[in-house]
Amino acid sequence: MSVPSQTPYNTHQGNGVTTVFAFQFYILAAGGLQVSVDGEVTSGYTVSGVGNAAGGQVTFLTPPASGTTVLLLRAMSLYRDTNYQDNGDLLAQTINLDFDRIWMALQGQSLYNSLALCRPWFNYNYYDVQNYSIKNLATPTNGTDAANKNYVDLLVAREAAAREEAIGVDITRALRLAPGLQFNQLPAPASLRGRLLYFDDQTGQPNPIVPANIVNPDVLDLQSFDGEKYIGQCSNYATLSGITPACEGQRITLREYASGTGYGGGKFVARNFTGTEDGGITCVVNTDWHWERIGEPSTFDVTMFGAIPDGETDCIEAIKLMEAWSRTQTDNRAKTGVQFPSGNFAVSSWDSGGTYKRLFSPCWRGQSRIWLQ
């Protein structure tokens, strides 16, 4: 029998019910048909149509599951089992079957060749995979080897890690804003030639200015509308007594008399001679230096000596300090006394003995001045 030009395989989809599947190619024996389900060669079936050029059927004992792929493939082993004897019978059927087997093997080989990675033609210098994937590719070892996805992913991951590390280093030297903030767009590069960026003292937006307009950046900070915040402050009176001035006339700002109270602050000036500590106006550092509170003595009050107008903290010690200081002010003694700003002051008892003490004076502008005796 002649061997027609046939495709030596058929595929079917299982549905969990069908047990009979047809094949449309010539086989010489049932063993020449390979049956697989989802790529796994299986058993549990019978084959009919052996020797029929039009093909036959495979009948499963159990229907393949729904969604599985059933492949019926003619698989010819490459061997010769016909042995012609000297002076033996040369039968047509024997010769035909022998040649049929050869042609079936050639058809199978042609099928496998069609699945191989090939060049489009002899004069092409590349292989065309026809948009198919290539799997199980080994890791490249030479520079001209093909690379698999794992190798590429590894290189990309290494590069990304190195880039992130470099960015992490570089970004610390970059001008950047917090998330959600942005600078206004700068003018065209031609407009920026010969200019430097100056950050506006109110908006903070960058503005290009010519170098001749640049002044000391500290001056820019200090002359801004809130520039005083850049001037350092001493945290409390006790700390002030430990700060040695650098020169006569140096000034310093005291934030508050005692930390966390918000009262008794002010400005002081350095004096390079011996002073007498009074607990609020003259803050002695050492035998050579002291800080002197700046202001009109008539405006001083007990908060500058440590009093706190919270209605709970006893202010008697601050009163004593201010009273003692007031007695040293010969030119302003009649105007000063002990003064309280508006607020609620807690005052305990004070035994002044038999000495007349003018502690308080009349009030004006929210300050209390009263004489006690």
From TrEMBL:
Task: Specify the domain of life of the species encoding this protein.
Answer: Bacteria
Which InterPro entries has this protein been placed in? Pectin_lyas_fold
- The name on file for this protein is Tail fiber protein
Give the species: Erwinia tracheiphila
